[in-house]
Amino acid sequence: MNLKEKKAKEYQDMVKAHEPRTNLLKNCIFAFVVGGIICDIGQAFLNLYSMYFPKDEAQTLTSITMIFLGAFLTGIGVYDKIGRFAGAGSIVPITGFSNSIVSPAVEYKKEGFVFGVGSKMFLIAGPVLVYGISTSILIGLVYYFVKIFPKI
């Protein structure tokens, strides 16, 4: 082992020694509980909307409400605190997607609406949207042509 490799190993050992330990069980429980609470809130909105609207409209209104709540809580700085506490429990529901779009926009709002908010809004979610939409178009085309030409 040469000197460079020895220094690299020493550095890695030092990093491991000072790395904060995580409690995996505690983190999983927090993620499960907070994710469940977010889903319970969504279910409560769905139940409420289902009393006044048809099922499809109630589901759409629930999604819109949860996206709004995620964006609103991100804008006032509450969702980041929930995320630090819950970890993946706050990322998985639709509110986490809303948070991933709004967070960069809020961070860069000082640069203006066009070059700040507008250009940074889809910084994280943009690739997900592009690949998701592209894949859905390709799958739709394949489905369309398979349906038109079933015997080929």
From TrEMBL:
Keywords: Membrane, Transmembrane, Transmembrane helix. The keyword Isomerase does not apply. Pfam families: SpoVAC_SpoVAEB. It comes from the Bacteria. The chain crosses the membrane at residues 24-46, 58-78, 85-102, 122-146. This is Stage V sporulation protein AC. It comes from Caldicellulosiruptor changbaiensis.
